[in-house]
Structure formats: structure tokens, C-alpha cells
Amino acid sequence: MSESGGPDVTQELRLPWDDDPEDLYEHAPCGYLTTLPDGTIVRVNETFLTWTGYARTDLIGHKRFRDLLTPGDQIYHETHYAPLLTMQGEVHEIALDVVRADRSRVPTLVNSVLERSATGTPRIIRTMVFNATERRGYERELLSARRAAESSEQRVRVLQQIVADLAAAPTEAEVAEAVIRAPEPAFQATSSSIFLVDPERDELIAVSSTDPTTGNWDDMPRSSTRAVAEVARRGDLHVIATVAEAEAHFPDLAESMRRSERKTVVLLPLTTGPADDHGAASVLGVLAFSFREERVLTDGELRVIRLLGQQAGQALDRARLYDEGRRREDRSSFLARTTRALDEQHRLLQRARRLVERVVPEIADWALVRLQVGPAGLVEYHGGPAPDPELLDARVAEAVETCAPVYADDGDGLGCTVLPLTVRGRVIGTLALRMAPDRRGAGADRLFLVDLADRAALALENARLYEQERAIARTLQRSLLAADVPGADSRFALETHYQAAAQDLEVGGDWYDAFLITANKLAVVVGDVVGRGIDAATTMGQLRSAIRALATAENGPARLLEGLDRFCERVESARMATVVYAEIDLVGNELAYATAGHLPLLLHEPAGSPQYLMRARSAPLGSRAGDRRRVEDRIRLTGGSRLLLYTDGLIERRGRGLDRGFEILAREFSRMRDAPLKGLTAGLADILVGRDHSDDVCMLCVSLGTDERLERSIGADPVQISLLRADMRGWMAGHGVDPDCLNAVLLACSEAVANAIEHGYQDDPFGMVDVSATISADAVEIRVSDHGTWRGPGADLARGRGLQLIYESMDDVSFDQDQGTTVTMRRHRNAP
Amino acid sequence: MTDQWVSFSRRGAAELVHLKGEIDLANANDIGRAIVARTTGADAVLIDLTAVSFLDSAGVRLLDFIVGDLDDRRKPVRLVVGERGAARMTLQLCSFRDDLLATDLDRAAAELDR
């Protein structure tokens, strides 16, 4: 060994192997190595040489033990083996890989013992090497078995979580979200996507993906040749292990695998029905997941994947049923709410408006209802934007012509469903709806829309009928009320007022009437029929005619009411109507009156305050429980008296006692004593009931005996001038003033009053203008007075024109300015 | 608001203004605004006053303004009034030019078209 250059220690060695039989050493079932403390091999047995394929001469004196190890084990040798050996003197069962002569490896277990000299210096290392090839294989199996168990356990945990999520997912969308989360943790997939079957449209809908950049992310018909559709049709799990495999069977998939750099794809149908019979199972969707590396799936994994498909399928099925149930519930609730909401509106326009406002946005984003009513029809719409009008018109025409719904189609460029509104087999209009694509087309939805259209049609038709009846009733009532009341009689003047309730109520049964029984006897009447609507209007017309027929020169009010009681025996709807009836003798100035359950007449004579005529009262017409002994009262009237007949709507007001109502009416009637008769009844209604009144108001005021003198007091408001003119016109006409004179006087009087308002009360909106007029056989004289301060008549050119007109139209004009201004004007009458 | 007193139509080249009822201090301004809105830019104007039952100085002022405006623009205008009646009386009292007044709508329209 001296040639090796190491210290020559062999001479001192006792040869230990001489003690052991050579053969045993050479062919022991383990390798023996003897090395110097620096690792140089000095002896090796045949077994080791056989295992490693080295020749003895390759090793002895040429190699250290660690030279035979793999690079990793060489480091281990230096860091662990050698230090341990030096410190402990021995090491046991160190696993090291020995590199054979052919560079392959032999897994070994190594025991070494360090022998020291008497002085304690390391002398030799004896190493025993066991072949551990089989043991390592066994260990590896154990390890991989443990890893498999672990990953299987993780898979099971993931799947358990997924199954729990699926059970809790109430909608298809949530099921899809739960399923799509499975492949990555369970199988280490790179990404996954889910497609659901839409049976109504016969399509596969791409619902969700963890990486939408992969694959062809469009919906597809179920008949598509694409891999997903193919798998959905076949209903069985497909593992496309390589791009080449995809190339052979599914070119579209191969293309998207290449694009998204995927090596393996799993297409899993989500099925419900018997697990072992693919033909009987129905496919509700497809889960696709893919791997960036080529991935071999074990049988266990495939089993779990199939299980996932079934679990997900069942969850989808359940969610679909649940969705369907809830949709049905939503729909019926919507229909019920809509019907109720429509019922709240009586009028046609409001009901149509309500319909489109209910429909948008709950079921559509735009809605239009068209009704074939009236010459122009009725159109109400809501939402937006509006679709192409021409396409819509064409579709509406189609729906009307075929009397059947025309449903929206994806490719029609309109996107609107048009439903005919049909009542008793007649199309009364159409309802057009534009819905988002996912809200249309399904069979159940179609049934729902038809149901909606039916209900809407019925509600709109009812409103139309209501409207029609209301219009007829109103026309009837108006025609009766508008019938000519006598006028142009100098002995009396009449003013009437009818005001319908502010709320959209049906026509009421209030009415007034005035007519001459004889040349010298005026009858006035105000009444109130029970009920509303067309029946009330009809009854009112009948009672009105009955009164006109029963009013004779001989009868008088009491006999007339008895006649009406008999009339009620035949006309049941007239029963319990109330009436106040008065006859005025225009020659003797005598008033005869009777009331049947009605509010008392209000009389205001020129001197004194207004009084309610409380006598001659009896029960409503045809009353069974009331006192039907009809009585009448007679009083003499002085010229210039005013008499007011009215219905309860005038004084009854919520929150105000009836007594108070009577009080206010009397006070206001008195206050307006000098106001022009024209506009007086409307003015009273304004003050007593205002705009917000819940009942009809009907009034008739008669002013008796035209005086030789007319006295009026009006507010400083230009609108009042025309009311004054109306009074004055009637007054002059009653006295037979010729038209030229009449027109001239009206013009001059208007200009004088306008002057008083514009100049006298320029700064005083509450000023009053007094007008008095007298008439004689040859002239009319007018006096207009104000208490304001004039700025001088020439101040304004326009009013200068007014003065000019006064001078031009009258024969004598004089101004008196003393505490205000008084204009006195006189015009001669032309010979008749 | 003024529909009860004023309405409009076309008669040949002329804008035809129909007035009716009583025109006085209370409504003349509103009616004037409604008419001017239609006659500004008209090539000819016919104002039919035959249905007017009363016309006061405020009404006269309104007509004076419209006629003045059309005269300034050299556009023809005619006021059609009845043989008798309140409107004719007031206009005559105010000495409106005879060439403005006409009694027959058709003839007045024909004159404007000439």
C-alpha cells in the first residue's frame, strides 16, 4: 500500500482476515469494505464487487468509499456519516445510494465501525453494506400509499364540503357556483367551467367559469358538434388525456386546449336519475375542468368525479324544482297584486297607466298598452327605451289579426312580446312587453303572460264599461241640467250652479230645474236622488219630467209632492229622493213652497238678514216611515228678494257641523247681497266647499222683481266687470232697452269701472266700486263711484281711449271728484 | 287658457284668428299674447270678430297693437266685424280705418290673397 503514498502502517498490522475463512468473507450476503481512516478502500469482498460491477483493482488503493456515492450522499457522508463515525466510533443503518460502475444506483444500508490503535488514533474502518433495493421499493410504496390516502382524504373533505354546499344551494345559479369550486382543490385542476341545459330553448348555457378566457364561452344548441354538447348528449364522463386525443375526437376542444395551454380535460355530465344506467339518466349540465400538465386520473379519482356529477345533477334537479315552484309562486303573487292594484283605479286611463307601471320593471323593462277606444284609441307606456315603432306596429297588427300572442324571438330585432287583450272573444287592445332574454320564451312564462293579459283585458274592459256608463250618465245629467231655464224676463233672474265631486266618483243625482207654469207663475226646484251613476241620472230625469207634468196652475206645491209620492209607487228608484219646490207668482209677488226631506230654502229680502224657510216640511218622496202629509207655506215677497235652493253638498263638510254650515251660508249669502247675481252661486260654492269637496253641489238662485234701480258693489278686480255686465245686460233687456243703447251703456259702464279699478285703486286691491243704474222711459243713467285716489285721467294714453269711448258712447258725462271719483253718464233710449 | 276666446286656422295665405265672447280688461292681455304668438311672421292676418259680444278699450288696444305690428312689416290685415254689434260699435267709436274693417270673411280673404 506504500505505493499509494499513504503512511506505511501495514507492517505493524496483524492480519485479522486470516482468522476468518476466506470464502465466508468473499461471499457473505453483504458487502464488506475495509478502508483507511481517510476512506481509501484497502479491502473489498466479492459480494460488493458483484453488486456494484467494479473490479477489485478499480477500487483498492484508488477509491475512497465516498467516491462511490451519489453527489447528494457524498454531502451526507461528509456532514453526518464521517463526523458520527469519528465521534461514536460506529454508525448504523445509514441509507446511502452507491453508484455502480454502469452509473446506476444501488440503494444500501451501511454500518461502519472505526478501529483505533492503542494510542487511540484511528486505524481502520470496517464497513458492512446491505443491499436495500427491495426495502426502498417497499418504503416508496408505503410513502405513495400514504400520499394517496392523504390526497384521497383531502378529496373526500373537499367533496363533503361541496355536497354540503349543494344541499344548501336553493337556486341553479348557486348549485353551479358550488360545483365549479370542486375540481381545483379536489383534483388540482387548473380551471373549471360549467354549462347548464336549458330544455325550453334546447341549449347549453355557459353559466360560470373560474377562468373565462379558456375555451369557447358561447351558449350552444344541444345538437352542437362541440365536445361539451357531445358529452351532454352521451351522458357519460369523458377524460381527454392529451391534446392528441382531443384532436382525434373533438377538434374544437383540441383547438381551445392548445390556445389555453391545457394538456388534459375532463368533461363531466351532471346527471340525475339512475346512477348506473346512463341511458336513463338525464343530463342537466356539464362540468368541464382542465389541467395544465398531462394528468392521469386514478380509478378512485374517476369514481369520485362520477359521484360529483351525480350529486351536482341531483342538486340541480332539486334547485330547478325549487326555482320553478318559487317562480310559480312569484307569478301568482304578481298576478294577484296586479289585479288588486288595477281594481283600485276605476277610470280607464288610470287603470291602463297602473298596468304598465306594475309590469315595468317587475317583469319587463318596457311596456305599452294600446286600447281600441274612442276615435284616437288609448296608449300608455312605461319604461324604456322604446323599440322600433314600425316593427312593433307590424307585430301588434299580427297579434290583433291572429288573436294570439306573438312572442319575442332573439333574432327578430324587436325583442317584444305582444299579447292581444281579449274579452268575450273580441280583441280590445294589445299589451306589448320587452323583457330581458332570460325572462322570455319559457313555456311556463308564456302561460303566465297569457294569464296576465287575460286579467288585464278584463280589468281594462270593466274600466271601459265604467267609463262608458259614466259618460252616458254625465251626458244625461248635463243635458237635463242645461235645458233652458227661463230668462230675459224683467220680473225675475235666475242663476244656477252644478259642481261634480272632486274625487273621481260617479255622477250624482242632484238636479235643479226652473220653468214657467203659466205666463205669470215661475216654478223652481232642487232635488237629490238616492245613489249615483247612470241609475241616479235616469231617475233624476224621470222625477224632473214628473214635476214638470204635475206642476199646474191649480195644484200648488203640496199637491205636487203628493203626486210625486204616487209616482214613487211605480218608479222605485225615486223613493227617498228629496225635493224642495217653490212656485212664485210674478204678478202678486207671492211665494208658495214645500220641502220633502230637503234642506230649507234661504230667502234674503232687500231689508233685513237672510232667513231659512223652515215651514212646510215633510218626509222624502215615497218615504214609508216619515210623515208624508204634504203641506205648503205661502209668503209675500218684496221686489229685489233673492231665494236660494241648494243640495246638502253645499253645507255638509267633514269636520264642520251642519248648524255651522247653515250659519256660514246665511252669512255669505248676505255678504254677497250687492254682488252681481251672475257668478253668485259659483262664488258661494267656492267659499263653502272649496275645491276639495267629496259631494256634488247643486244650486239655484232666483232674484225677484227687477227694480227701476240696479245697485251693485264689486271688488277692484277686472274679472268682476264681466259679471256686472251680465247683470246689467239682463236688467236692461228686461226693461226693453234697444240693442244700440244697451251696447253703448255696457261699454261706457265697463270703461268707467275699469278706470276706477286701474286709476282709483291702483294701490288698493281691496277697494270696492259702486255702480247704480236707473232707467226711465227715455233714458238710462249710470253712476260709477270709487273711493280711491286718481292719478289724473290723462296719465295713460290707453285709459284716455277708455274715456274717449265713454264720451263717444254716452250723451251726457260728468265727473265729480270728492272723496273718490264718481262718473255719472246718461244715454237716451231710442224709440222702440 | 285663452281657448274659450280665441282659436286659429288658415285661410289661403292668411292666418285666421277667431275671437268670440267678451273681450275686456280681464282677458285682453292673455288673448293678445296668444294672437301675437301666431301672427308673428304671418304673411297676412284675418281677425274674425263677428262672434265677439263685447269689446272694450283694452280689446281695442290689443287690436291696435297687432295692426300696427303688421303695418310695420307691410303685411296686410283685415278685421271682420258684423253689420251691427258690440265689436263694430266700439271700433267705429274709436275710428278704426275703414280699409281695415270688412263685413264678409270670404271677401276679406280674397282681398288678402290678391
Description:
Chain B: Pfam families: STAS. Chain B: This is Anti-sigma factor antagonist. Chain B: It comes from Actinoplanes flavus. Chain B: Residues 16-114 form the STAS domain. The complex is a heterodimer of chains A (832) and B (114). By secondary structure, chain A is an alpha+beta fold. Chain A folds into 5 domains: 2-131, Beta-Lactamase; 147-325, 2-Layer Sandwich (Beta-Lactamase), CATH 3.30.450; 359-471, 2-Layer Sandwich (Beta-Lactamase), CATH 3.30.450.40; 484-706, PPM-type phosphatase domain (Phosphatase 2c, domain 1), CATH 3.60.40.10; 710-828, 2-Layer Sandwich (Heat Shock Protein 90). Chain A is 40% helix and 26% strand. Chain A is built from 21 helices and 31 strands. In chain A, the strands form 6 sheets. Chain A has a 6-stranded antiparallel β-sheet, sandwiched between helices. In chain A, strands 17, 18, 19, 20, 23 and 24 form a 6-stranded mixed β-sheet that branches. The longest helix of chain A is centred in the middle third of the chain and has 45 residues, at 299-343. Chain A is rod-shaped, with a radius of gyration of 57 Å. The relative contact order of chain A is 0.04. The mean pLDDT of chain A is 85. Chain B has helices at residues 28-39, 57-72, 86-93, 105-113; strands spanning 6-11, 14-23, 45-55, 77-80, 101-102. Chain B starts with 5 loop residues before the first strand and ends with a helix. In chain B, helix 1 runs parallel beside helix 2 (57-72). In chain B, strand 4 (77-80), helix 3 and strand 5 form a beta-alpha-beta unit. The longest helix of chain B is centred in the middle third of the chain and has 16 residues, at 57-72. Chain B is of the alpha/beta class. Chain B has one domain (6-113): 2-Layer Sandwich (Transcription Regulator spoIIAA), CATH 3.30.750.
